[in-house]
Structures are given as structure tokens and as C-alpha cells.
Amino acid sequence: MKAIVHHEYGSADVLRLEEIEKPTPADDEVLVRVYAASVNPADWYGMKGIIVARPGGGWLKPKDPRIGGDYAGVIEGVGRKVKDFKPGDEVYGSRHGALAEYICVSKSISSKPSNISFEQAAAVPTAALTALQGLRDHGKLKAGQTVLITGAAGGVGHFAVQIAKAMGAEVTGVCRTQNLDFVRSLGADHVVDYTREDYTQTDRHYDLILDIASTKSWSALNRILKPTGMLILVGAPGANKPLGPLGQIGRLMLGSLRSRQKMRFFVASFNHEDFAHMRELIESGKMTPVLDGTYPMIEAVEAMRLLGEGHARGKLVVTMNAKKNGRAF
Asked: What is the reported pTM?
């Protein structure tokens, strides 16, 4: 089968489309034919080989050359212990090595929402779970509360705006000029153009800040939090830094130590209950995945390069078994 791999760390140019062995499912796994896979910051950091990723991923070169995480596709085979799925089921989830024609999955897998495409479904898992858990579990957002979402037009952000509105919150989204109408269309009550005004220099205060495109100091963010407010950090610039986003995370954590307001950083966890909840949101029309672009496997380098630039509107997705210039890849 064909897969996107990297045998060294570096920019998107290290990615290669190669023929590798097709996996065979273990007793507790299913074999998924991948139709689409989205790219996430975690994929970028693994490709770049940031320092904190190397102990598990390989110090000098990747232990596992495969890349990608979020996928959507159709089950082609099941292990003998699998009871919940059968061949032909349409599924989505997250599994390392998803930028490939086939993957074997045992845990992070769920039935695909019926009203969206495979490309849209592949955009959901990591980004939507991060938004959901950041708002609901870590931010404790309640109906009627106010929430500020930075990076509101991006992968996590565009889900966060929709989820916060579904939860009954008053939402302010922060984005670039060209994305203002887009963020409004997602349901944001207010939008702020960060290229024209400083969203921390305002009389408005928030119960929760979901900080996805974190560039501000703790003192600046603390200024617009209510006395019992909370900052949830889920992302920060760092695509081309040795430590990735850890520098900004550390600065905010240190700054918050003596403050009444709380600050938390987390990484999304995958569970069947939240996958089911996301499927309900999508099928009810309360949340819709938005794609900035879809790319055949041969153009995965371009998708990853755009991800690294940090200005995608919604999600970037790679499609498998696509055709380009009459040749199938």
C-alpha cells in the first residue's frame, strides 16, 4: 500500500509517498481503508522532531516513519475478538500513521456521522475533541457565560465557536480580517480583528478564555478575565521552534501562579462517549466541519506546509486513492 512517511526530521519537504507493507489486524483490531486524513499540529511537531517529541519518537531519526493521526474510511476486515464493528462500516477516529491507504485500529474509532463526507469526518477527531473538552471539561463553561476564543477560524477554533454556541454561551471570536465573516457565520456573537485591535485592551471581561493561538502574556489575558474566570490553553505558536509551543505554555503557567484566576493546559483524550456526542452535534446540525482544502496524497507536502504557516481556515485534509493527471496514487 502507499503511505506518507518521513525518514528524517525537518520541514514538509522530508515527506515522501512510498510503498509500505499493508497491515494485518490483530485479534482486537479492525483494518480500515482510509479515504481521508486530516493534518494536525501534533503531526507537524512529529515531522519537525521538536526536542520534547524525540524521546518517544526517536532521537536522531523517526523510529516509525509513518505520520498522520485523524482518519475516516471503511472497515475492510476485523479481528476475531471485535464485536462492535463489521466490514463495510463507515468509521472515523485517530491513529498514528493515518496518512496511508490502510491502518489498523483498536481503540480510537467510532461510527462516522451520516450527514457528512469522509473528508469532513477526517477533520473532526482531534480538533473537535480538543474544543469540546476544553470548553466543557476543563473550562466548565455554562449557558449564559461569556467565552473568548482566539484562533477562532482555525481547526480547533471553528469547532469551539460552534460548540460554545450549542452550550448556550455568548461567544467572542478572535481572527484575522479576512476571516471575520467566516467566524460570524459559525455563530459568534462578537468578532475581533487582531490585526487592527488588541483584544486584551477592552472593557469586556470573560468567564472563560479558550486560547488556541496564544501570543499574549498572562498579565494581558488576566486583565480581561472575570475574578473567577479561567484560561484554558490548547495551542500556541511554535511550528518552527525547537521546543514547539512549550515556551509559551511555560510562561503562562508561571505568570498564573500568584493569580486568583486559573490557567490550565491539556491534551485531548479519546473516548467513545465524546465521539458519540460529537456525532450527535454534527447530525443535529449544531456543528459542521469546515475544510480549507483537500489534497491528494501526492500533494500531502503542500497540506503540511500550509498547516505550518498557521493560517488555515478550518481544516486541511489529504485524500487517499485520488487521481492526478490520470495516474492513481
From this structure: 0.92
Q: CA distances (Å), 185 to each of 145, 157, 160, 190, in order?
A: 20, 13, 13, 11
Mean pLDDT lowest among 161-165, 198-202, 214-218, 283-287: 214-218
> 3-class SS at 257?
coil
Task: Report CA-CA distances (Å) from 214 to 35, 112, 223.
Answer: 33, 32, 15
Separation between Cα atoms, residue 22 and residue 83, nearest integer Å: 23
Question: Which one-letter DSSP state was computed for residue 3?
Answer: E
Per-residue confidence band for 325, with pLDDT thresholds at 50, 70 and 90: very low
CA angle 190, 195, 201 (to 5 degrees): 65
Burial of 219: CB neighbours in 10 Å, binned 0-12, 13-18, 19+: exposed
Asked whether the predicted pLDDT for residue 216 surpasses 80, the reply is yes
Q: Give the DSSP letter string of 88-149.
A: T-EEEEE-TT-SBSEEEESSSEEEPPTTS-HHHHHTSHHHHHHHHHIIIIIS---TT-EEEE
Alpha carbons 290 and 278: distance in angstroms, whole number: 15
Whole-number pLDDT of residue 219: 92
pLDDT band at 158 (very low <50, low <70, confident <90, very high): very high
Q: What are the phi and psi torsion angles at 37 (to 5°)?
A: -145, 135
- Cβ–Cβ < 8 Å for 235, 213: yes
322 has a pLDDT exceeding 60: no
Residue 115 sits at the vertex; the CA angle it makes with 113 and 119, to the nearest 5 degrees, is: 75
Strand partners, 146: 170
Q: Which residues lie across from 291 on neighbouring strands?
A: 315
Phi, psi of 281 (to 5 degrees): -60, -40
Closest CA to 109 of 133, 82, 131: 82
Q: What structural domains does the chain harbor?
A: 2-124+289-328 (3.90.180.10), 127-265 (3.40.50.720)
